[in-house]
Amino acid sequence: MKINYTSVRRSVLTIFLLFSTFFCFATTYYISTTGNDATGNGTIGNPWKTLSKATSTITTSGNIIHVNAGTYTETQTSYLRPGVSIEGDGMTTTIINSALTGTWSTLLELSSSNGTNGNQSISALTLDGGYVSESNVKSWVGIWITGRSNVLIHHCRLRNWKQSSTIFNGNTNTNPGTDVGQSFATGNKFYDNIVTNSAAMYNGTGQGALMLGFQNGMQIYNNNIQQIERVNFANGWPIKYWNQGWLKGVKIYNNTLTKIPYSGSYPGENGNWDFAIEFFNIEGLEIYGNTIQGAIDMAYNYKGAYGYCAWIHDNTISHPVLGTRIEGGIIFEYRTESAIVENNIINNKTYGITFNTRGYAENGDDRYYLPGGPPVGGYSYIVDCIIRKNLFSNIYAGTGIGNRFAIGVISDGPDDPQINNMQIYNNTIVAKPGDPAYVGLDFSSQPNGNCSGLYIRNNIVNGFSSSWLRGSNGATNITNCVVTHNDAFGNGGSNTPGWPGGNPTSYTYTNNLAVNPQFVSATDFHLQASSTLIDLGVNVGIPFTGIAPDRGYAEFGSGALPIKLIDFTVRETNGKNLLQWNTATEVNSNYFDIERSGDAQTYHVIGRVNASGFSQTEVKYNFTDASPLKGMNYYRLVMVDKDATQEYSKIVSISSRENSSLTITYVDLSSGTNTATINVNSTQAQSANLSIIDVSGRTILNTSIQLQQGVNTISKKIPTIPGGIYYVKLFTANDVVVKNTLSRN
User: Fold this and answer.
1) Predicted confidence (pLDDT) per residue in 588-604, tens digit
2) Domains and CATH numbers, the chain
3) pTM, entire model
4) R_g of the chain, CA atoms, integer Å
């Protein structure tokens, strides 16, 4: 008798359907383009044909639906039960097209009561909604999750959904206006996905390709989400709130978010805005390491139990091509508590950061549950906010109606902003030559407001057509205002602040200059070695070299390295993780340290690669992590110059399967001697369970065995069996190994 074994599948969570009757391990069911919903049973040898059949049949938590490579068409909504996961063979090879039609038609629905532990994932496939235009609409929503926690969506391609590709709604209560007593979903993640053409304009406002509501600690990372495919005024936003938002501790990092350039004459025309991200009701939001084309808009920004309402740092917020219409960077609306905005590049915008306030008692129909009327400072109170070490470049005037400043506070109501302790320091702010915006720092909406504590220090403000710093025409209404150690150069108003309503009360204005900052170039806003602004700032608590801080966003000698990193990626290959990166140019580079983390917080060096030193052409590098951590692996590069200056790359991540301690190296099923002979290599002494099942699901053998470290030869009596496919499975407390084998008489 000749035995051939054809494949091995390892998984701690996954075993075949055939074993589910006997063991409490996950079972994998199969869908294939050649399957049959009527006669199939979901086994690898007799799969179903549609996702709707599989999801209606598989209801036991821990089981997995595997969609084989191929292109499928679904005509019914699939209702995925808690604990059941879906996996494809890959987003480029496993494609599910939706043929559902009708308002809010949804391909994949995960809906449960509040607080349900989803404990499931959707991965490695493409979901296509078929949207072409408003006259050729198919499905509205790709994945809709309600009430569930611990749902992971990763390594998927989501495209052509009329309304939204994915909705995470952690609460079944619709628009409660409060989070008091409400349930939040926890542990949800959306990562390593590609999303295109999946956000609509609906009822006069934009929807999100990804929408979030009532999420606590959700993570969104390593995604590419764009909305540029539809005609003007028909594109929604890449990311938006759902169910009035209510987001706590959400992290959005290392994504590329692209919104089509704005085409309106004023913000909000035809219900459209330039938003790439729009959120309501946030606490502890962190947005970092992203490349964003479009604006970030946040309303009702409370810090709650966190140190900040929002920490927005190390992002590039820019349009690659300078536009002519009104485009914004970061927008805070209504109340904003302890926002921190630092180390961002905001480029090619008509305005960089704005605080949009309303009347003192206007709650915007939100947070109306607060007892005793408006809270201290009002519903638009701006308190303890910090803007530091950002680069604002090419801030232009353009055409249309809207803001034209780098940083400003405006009022959509009675000009009564309430400000307490705003810190603006060590920013470099440069207007567009030939088409400059009007004002660098704009506080002209204060005639009926109140501001106590405005600190403007160590900034460079260059090239604005009006004043670099301006107050209101009426009463200034600012007290305890400190403006020191700034450099205002090439601005209107003779480079002096404009206070039409009179100077602030308790006003300090000292050590300010109006000199050429001597940038490296028209596009590189680091200081030259000859700049008079080096060591000429005041100590505001940030690290510096020399005898004092420099003015502007970049400390001379400790700024960005002269290394231009093109890309940094990671992929799995034969159980190892291959990291690859390219540089476009290098000057005086020394080496790259590779750091790894299991939690994206604490990193350890696992290797070093020498740099080329000097190069004006592309250089390719790689490093292999031969022993990845179990589960998630996060990697970053530390790029080190020969003068010991260093800089971090973006973070990349990958999920690694656990390394198996078992290997089945040989199988012989002999019907002549009624004996099964199996060779097993084990890395340690351990107990295991051995089973053999035929293709119909009948158990041939089920027995416990004891393995020794090294090669084990196992011989067991079996009944007479016909020729055909059999499954040999070994599992321990930590590993599952399954081998397909063919017995021929």
Assistant:
1) 788 999 999 887 777 88
2) 3-9+661-743 (2.60.40.3080), 300-514 (no CATH), 563-656 (2.60.40.10)
3) 0.76
4) 30
